[in-house]
Amino acid sequence: MTMKPRILTMPMLAGAILMGGAAAPADAAASKPAAQQTPAAVSATYVCPMHPDVISDKPGRCPECKMHLKKIEAPTAAYVCPMHPEVKSDKPGRCPECKMHLKKAK
Question: pTM for the whole thing?
Fold first, then answer.
């Protein structure tokens, strides 16, 4: 069994996280199983601390590392960015990415 050096895999993982799946098709969330969809796509409340792509709506263990899934609280954001819906805040302000004013969430 050949193991990849962590030196190469960690920067690649960080780059993939920073890219945010920019190359993924628009319907990629629909093609993923429920355990691998983003929190916005599923009303999930449990996430693996080591593998944030492992999401569940009930407690259990991560299938990859066997750690207990941690409960996450649903964000109660009152303001969101019109251009970047992932940017949320509980108070008015500006989006850190595009500097637009945050709008009240519906």
Answer: 0.34
